[in-house]
Amino acid sequence: MTQRELQKKIRELKNLAAHHKLDIHEDLSRIASKIEGSESIDVTPWQRVELARHPNRPTTLEYIEKISDEYLELFGDRVFGDDPAMVGGIARIGGVAFTFIGHQKGKNMKENLRRNYGMAQPEGYRKALRLAYQAEKFGRPIITFVDTMGAFPGISSEERGISEAIARNLKEFSVLKTPIITTVIGEGGSGGAIGIAVADRVFMLENAVYSVISPEGCASILLRDAKKAQLAAGLMKMTARDLLSFGIIDGIVAEPPAGAHTDLSFVAARLKENILTHYKALSSKKLETVLKERSRRWLSFGEFYDPEEKEESFFKKFLPWGS
Amino acid sequence: MTQRELQKKIRELKNLAAHHKLDIHEDLSRIASKIEGSESIDVTPWQRVELARHPNRPTTLEYIEKISDEYLELFGDRVFGDDPAMVGGIARIGGVAFTFIGHQKGKNMKENLRRNYGMAQPEGYRKALRLAYQAEKFGRPIITFVDTMGAFPGISSEERGISEAIARNLKEFSVLKTPIITTVIGEGGSGGAIGIAVADRVFMLENAVYSVISPEGCASILLRDAKKAQLAAGLMKMTARDLLSFGIIDGIVAEPPAGAHTDLSFVAARLKENILTHYKALSSKKLETVLKERSRRWLSFGEFYDPEEKEESFFKKFLPWGS
Amino acid sequence: MARINVETFFQKLLPRTKRNLQYGMVDDRVFVQKEHKCPTCSNPVETDQLKENAFVCYHCNHHFRISAPERLRLLADNGEYQEFSGGLSSLNPLDFPDYEERFSAAKEKSGLDEAVKTVVCKIGGRETVVIVMSFQFMGGSMGSVVGEKITRAVLLAAQRGLPCVLFTASGGARMQEGIYSLMQMAKTSHAIALLERTRMPLIVVLTDPTTGGVTASFAMLGDITLAEPEALIGFAGPRVIEGTIKQKLPEGFQKSEFLQEKGFVDRVVPRKDLKKTLTFLIDAHIAIRGGKK
Amino acid sequence: MARINVETFFQKLLPRTKRNLQYGMVDDRVFVQKEHKCPTCSNPVETDQLKENAFVCYHCNHHFRISAPERLRLLADNGEYQEFSGGLSSLNPLDFPDYEERFSAAKEKSGLDEAVKTVVCKIGGRETVVIVMSFQFMGGSMGSVVGEKITRAVLLAAQRGLPCVLFTASGGARMQEGIYSLMQMAKTSHAIALLERTRMPLIVVLTDPTTGGVTASFAMLGDITLAEPEALIGFAGPRVIEGTIKQKLPEGFQKSEFLQEKGFVDRVVPRKDLKKTLTFLIDAHIAIRGGKK
Ligand SMILES: [Zn+2]
Ligand SMILES: [Zn+2]
User: Fold this and answer.
1) C286 falls in which pLDDT band (50, 70, 90)?
2) Mean pLDDT value of segment D183-196
3) Alpha helices in chain C (DSSP H)
4) How high is the pLDDT of residue D12?
5) Which residues have C-beta under 5 Å from ligand 1, the single-atom ion?
6) What ipTM does this complex have?
7) Closest residue to A287, CB basis, from C1, C88, C181
8) Cα torsion at B11, B16, B19, B22 (round to 10°)?
């Protein structure tokens, strides 16, 4: 039983308890953190948010550069344009060719204007899908890096169908016939993040965050006070540790204590090792098995009470791919 | 042996003769027109061009309206826009659902401005392909109507990839897993026409024209005199009769002597009958057979001398689908 | 590599779900906005008269927002349908403050139990899986239950070889469920990927308003995408965009008609034509495949 | 429905084509424009020095148009390649006035026999089918022979499981062949559809100029699309568009860099990097599939 599965069992127990108003919450949390093997480090969720957004935080292209022996960036979506906020191409690592795809932020004002602060438009998501199809056709595994505060919320983005572009990616990546490994390297913001994050394995850097809405957005909408972002960052449970305990991600890639930007080579080496380890694990399985497991994974997400099925979920019992 | 195959044999003979400088050209032409069963009607190629471009000539939507029992137009390419110069949707004829696709000209100035005189942009070709994929997925046969002087030669069209859009259609329609029947109903202008004309059966209305360039374009480029369009219309061999004799099309749908616009119902009835006849013939075959024949058809087009193969063409002997 | 055999799965699923599918009469509880003025033309409107007119303003054609039971009354043959997955209920996986309270309040206020209802009913004589969202329940927001119900409904359509019609109405994610809510986008989209392989049609009808994560997932994944007139449809809401670009948005931006022009909606269909249009489409997608009418 | 077994076909084809594939030395006849000034920077240029520099202006980096033999000298390992389908020759199916004369004149002027050369050679050690068009031969126009040769080459790649590299350079259709010329667009595109099923890569390199029916068919159908710097690439030529819109075109319109920005070109690659880039790409597409390097 993997750590993710163990965590899942605990969550199920917790949910059942909640429904029956049993107060075992604290106990379960304690068990959970023991499984994680986590010593409580004094980094607040808001500090993680700040590290994830740090202006010097390494970007997708920096990691690709470090990780691959040879890399050729490819451009364009074949329908409207090339989006500099989303990059991708073919890389060789040892004797294996990979397709890399990722959000790309700038490291200075000028570059950020060109890269739109990593907020991709439909062209970006369509370029990602084009490269993904190409990878599928030629049997290349796909590595994606998530680093965006969200898809670009502007007129151009809306009128060219940002919703359609993201939705299509979710559907297509979920059945793409090649292994996919995603790592959230900085900000994992909402639909813009998940638009390239449907994968067989999802990891987060230690100080990356991943959530349905920014802490600021959550504060202003749910807490009705935009200044409560720091509080919201905690409530949203958006850190790597949170997501690992929810079973949403598969693992955490360590950063130096002061953040990834203080030692790019260290983080890139960990990242590379993690990617190659999981690529090897995935490629040792039959592709059909990989797809079954991906299907099971994505159908399983969600926490709810089902009176008919008791703690056994519908999909757990009637998985498309058998149990 | 069908008429098209017979014509092909004659052409092969003619080509061989030309290569060996045998003057049997006249004789062969006489044989060819006997096979056609054509009495020579005194309509010049240029008159056909004028009829094909007649301002009252029935358009795609008029034919669809007449032919189908129920029709629902669908819009949009799902990436950039809806192109009113290309229309399409789902129609029911009796108990069968068809997908219709066609260029759409206007019948007056205002409508023509909206429809861009039937000159489609990338959106139009991408809408066509979207509807074609939809048809393939749901097992609907596809009926296309060609009526354009060409794809729109403008900035918008170029920058959004008119070449890519047409090219992709050629490739995809050639292997689409559903029967396709095309009729050139008016002008069949160059790449803009063939962009929706890769099919299992291609027909032309009696006064339709179909060519690689307009007579005006041919006159100004090849004859170096824009005023020689009438002459060029003859030289280009662009009438239905010409294309039937070349074996490029499968048949001609008759019009009233003064042109299709003088009796829409008559022409629509002939068109419908022709479509349904050939749909029945195609649907009685295995889809695999239909696809093999389509492949053979499109690989076979071209007239050249091959010293190694003699009159037997490479593809005739080594057809992808066997002989 | 061989294609995965999804069909086997659905056959396994068949006997289990079938037992629930006995048709009952429609639940007549309806939630409509309480305004006595039409928000478009400002003329006074009578709820009874509105109801007679499919909740379309009889002065100016404004389409009022309607909730799932009302939608089903208008759509299902004889107003009959069978709901399924009705018993699923939300948890508070993030222990988010006030979530339970807000949820209970929404239940009470709307008379609904969640933001989506999933049913099987007949449309024009053909059995169809119908999914209807209600904006009236917490802004139609998608949490784990909404995602699960939609996923099950889509897979039920796949399993039983039924067409699926999906009415959207949502402000987006149920933020109180955090990352779980975000995951529903991928979950529902994957279910649609599985439905696709069975070649059963998914017809999406976008209604006012449809925004956020719902738009960026199943709302845009129909084989056919219809929309009610003048519905607001977008990923980012208009206020967010105005905040980004620091200017007013153009007239008609993000409305159904705009989306049709931009190529993302097959057709804007007035509510009173909707049943006819859906009947034709369901028929056209089933008829050719050996079905009979 | 079962997929059509294209492989069977290609196996049948194998023994026949194999016998032609003995490597010979490159034909050294080269056609280059006779200008003694660079058209971009107007500096005087020496043909010999140009040749040393891959026919790229050593003042301003202008990429001169080069014909097939010169391209192959630059690309093929040791300049060695084996041509096939070289014997096909054009007819005049429309009896178009002066076609034969123009054709003969083109032959003489260019030292080439058609607007395309199809060969097998090694690139970075890997056997590859290479198709090279020559603008110098009747404006690189596509008639029946060009279409047939490209089609055969693409299918040869499919049959032998070889990568295919295609250099375009064309003003479009060979109008003297009328409708036959138009049909080549569909014919070549269909061949690429067949190649696709074998999952062998097609890498297109767009060179100056590529317009008309060639652009709207195989030129846009590569798995990877590269382009030489500053090449003119479009469907309608610039003069036609200016005639339509009655105004001058913007700077850089329809150039390689413009197409990359517009999303239709994967990468603009300078001629001197081309062999390295192609070697990497061929390798990346073959290596993963059990090949070794
Ligand atoms: Zn009103
Ligand atoms: Zn120069």
Assistant:
1) confident
2) 97
3) 6-18, 47-52, 68-75, 99-110, 144-160, 178-197, 238-245, 256-261, 271-287
4) 41
5) C 38, 40-41, 57, 59-60, 62
6) 0.91
7) C1
8) -90
Q: Rounded distance, CA A302 to CA A246, Å?
A: 10
CA closest to C163 among chain B residues: B138
Q: Do D288 and A72 touch (CB under 8 A)?
A: no
The H-assigned helical ranges of chain D are: 6-18, 47-52, 68-75, 99-110, 144-160, 178-198, 238-245, 256-261, 271-287
Q: How many CB pairs under 8 A join A and B?
A: 22
- Residue C118 CA to residue B163 CA, distance in Å, equals 45
Instruction: Name the token pair of C97.
Output: 């403050």
Number of other residues whose CB lies within 10 A of the CB of residue A254:
15
- Cis peptide bond prior to C209, omega within 30° of 0: yes
Q: Show me where the domains of chain B are located.
A: 43-295
CATH 3.40.30.10 given to domain A43-295: no
State residue C37's pLDDT score: 86
SS3 D226: strand
Query: What is the structure's pLDDT at D94?
Result: 96
Position A27 confidence tier, pLDDT thresholds 50, 70, 90: low
Could you tell me the pLDDT band of residue D48, with boundaries at 50, 70 and 90?
Answer: confident
Q: Give CA–CA dist A135/A129, Å, rounded.
A: 10
Q: What is the DSSP letter of C63?
A: B
Q: Three-state SS for C250?
A: coil
Most confident of A308-317, B300-309, C265-274: C265-274
CA distance D218 to B167: 7
Integer Cα distance of B191 and B186 in angstroms: 15
Place of tokens 């068109």: B271
Stretch B187-191: mean pLDDT: 97
**What count of other Cβ atoms lies within 10 Å of the Cβ of residue A222?**
20
> How much of chain A exceeds pLDDT 90, in percent?
79
First to last CA, chain B: 14
| Closest-CA residue of chain D to A82 | D263
Angle (CA) C77 C82 C88, round 5°: 145
Q: How far is the CA of D207 from the centre of ligand 2 (A)?
A: 17
Main-chain phi, psi angles of A270, to 5 degrees: -60, -45
Size of interface B-D (CB pairs under 8 A): 221
Which amino acid is present at B304?
A: F
**Ligand number nearest to the C-alpha of C230:** 1
Q: What interhelical angle do A287-300 and C178-197 show, nearest 10?
A: 130
| Gap between the Cα atoms of D196 and D201, Å rounded | 8
Instruction: List domains and CATH numbers for chain C.
Output: 1-64 (no CATH), 65-289 (3.90.226.10)
Nearest to D93 by CA among A272, B236, C59, A149: B236
SS3 A312: coil
Tokens of A61: 């292209």
Any chain A CB within 8 A of the CB of B126? yes
- C42-63: per-residue pLDDT in tens? 999 988 889 899 999 999 999 9
> What is the rounded distance in angstroms from the CA atom of residue A33 to the CA atom of residue A202?
20
CA angle, residues B83, B88, B91, in degrees to nearest 5? 160
Q: How far apart are CA C104 and CA C106, in angstroms?
A: 5
Is pLDDT above 90 for B42?
A: no
Whole-number Å distance between alpha carbons of A170 and A176: 10
DSSP string, D107-134: HHHHS-SSSEEEEEEEETTEEEEEEEE-
- DSSP letter for each residue of C14-51: HHHHHTT---EEPP----B---SB-TTT--B--HHHHH
Please give the DSSP secondary-structure letter assigned to residue A311: T
Per-residue pLDDT tens for D233-277?
999 999 889 888 888 899 999 999 999 999 999 999 999 999 999
